[in-house]
Task: structure prediction
Amino acid sequence: MPGSSLLRRARGKALTSVLALTAAAAGGWLALGGGSSAHAAATVPTPDHTVVVVFENHAYSQVIGSSSAPYLNSLAKGGANLTAAYAETHPSQPNYFAMFSGATQGITDDSCYTPGFSSAANLAAELIAAGKTWGSYNEGLPSQGSTTCSSGDYARKHNPWFGFSNVPTSSAKTFAQFPTDYSTLPQVSYVVPDLCSDMHDCSVATGDTWLKNNLGAYATWAKTHNSLLVVTFDEDNRLSGNRIPTVLYGQQVTAGATSSTTYNHYDLLRTLEDMHGLTSHAGNAATAKDITGIWTS
Result:
């Protein structure tokens, strides 16, 4: 009947309007409740745990494809290899500050700085302010939170977190404190080998073996536990335009991926910030770009 047809059309329009309003309200709630996180999730994944390991003073060509680094090359093949990653400067120490805080903080050499000399924004302070967990694991550190300049093969010049008054010294642990239950790791942590294990004073093969023996089990675990391992270098050997090896490995990394996009330490910092939904970005990370094109989703 004509009247029934008109009634059905009216009801259909009303239902459509209700659904549209509901969808709009949901969209508005999402935008209000997690805009920055939603934006980050669109470009980079959100690992449960991220471990960044920093080695020393070797160019891309000295490591990637080298028979002296079979384990690191296996990670590159099973994960992602950034073929155009670069450090910022020379010598070592300014690069560590750059990757941690988005700026060299006036550091130009490897001399021992005054602990807590800066209150500038940095990865750890941002994570802590956002209610996230942070830690560093430093091989050879005499004791948790020690600010000593050097001890045996340990060198504080590779540990920029001690330079910031807004990062608790207690968050700097010895490598012996690296957990065997990886689910207890902070959401983001840095691992810094000592001067031999990091290839500074010892060979590429020595560092590669150290990586396999000490982080190999974590890498395997990360593959099935939504976690990430990043292996990078502070600088090259001063002979290759500061092009450095950088490899990412984990469950949300596309196996065998390579990227020829030019990245630097600031881009890595920006990626770590965005992975964990941080709304602020330290120093030059504010204008840096996320590492993309290597993720499974």
Remarks:
- The longest helix spans residues 2-41.
- The CA atoms of residues 252 and 296 lie 5 Å apart.
- The radius of gyration is 23 Å.
- The chain has seven helices and 13 strands.
